[in-house]
Amino acid sequence: MKKILFTRAFQRELLAPYIEGKYEVVMWEEENIPMPRQLLLEKVADVEAIYTNVADQLDEEFFNVAKNLKAVATMGVGYDNIAIDIATEKGIPVGHTPDVLSEAVAELAVALMYTCSRRIRESMDFIRNGQWKAWGPFMFAGSRIKGSTIGIIGMGRIGKELADIVNRLGMKILYHNRRRDHESEERYEARYCSLEELLKQSDVIVMLAPLTDQTRHMLGYEEFSMMKNTAIFINVSRGPVVNEKDLFQILKENKIFAAGLDVFEIEPIKATHELLTLPNVVTTPHIGSATIETRLRMLDITMNNIVNALEGKEMLFTVNKDIYQPSKF
Ligand code: DGY
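^ thats the input. predicted complex w/ (2R)-2,3-dihydroxypropanoic acid below
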């Protein structure tokens, strides 16, 4: 019987419809702790498929020991943690879960935006610390969202979903992308501009660009310095697209208003990290797609990606589609 390795614990009832006595489940029994690297390397040597996630590093060493592997399926849209070129060389399809999570991630970006603009974190701390003695005319006065300008870096599926929401919130939309997106321009009145113009003109800047060699540290001190000192910066993409030390410095010097961060250069971020000492930094633990509905849809797609590959069919969403070209076999 073919084996599927799950690098996180899932309730067996959720998997039953896909497995149905056809596959053997090899499971790391922790839901919120990554499978230890050595164990991952040991277990993958003997399985046909892996159900993975953003916290596992599927690098050269991994693919070298994964001798029987026929399918890699990650529960997420991003795949910067997987050596796609090596998987492709070995003819292994890599599946992911685009589309279904766009709405959830866009909604989290909006939640972080309002949390920053209305100073919710500081307000909560103020009450909890027993500092609230009376109402004050300008106490925790924040900034208005309606009528302000949002700059979206990366107009992919999540960018479009975000543009749809903020268009209805009455925000003006600027975007920067590798290519112009005429559909978003028409539908959401989004205006394409250079990164520099976006950084200078926007009141809220949302980072959605995927992590690649080209986007690593795309925003550093110089770029943050271009932002308005009232600007709010949101990152729901990947931590390393931003130079975190520079972001800390800019926030400390009060050169931007606030930051809402769901992702970090090193995850999990340490509780003692300097960014967490700042009152105007709102953080969440990489929960962009974490609604129950979305996570169930992601599980369904990930399982279908695996089962399809094991049955010799195309995955529902394949990252390295080249492997399906006849010349590759
Ligand atoms: C994604 O879908 O890429 C999320 O960041 C979780 O991995």
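The pocket of (2R)-2,3-dihydroxypropanoic acid is lined by residues 54, 76-78, 101, 288-289 (CB under 6 Å).
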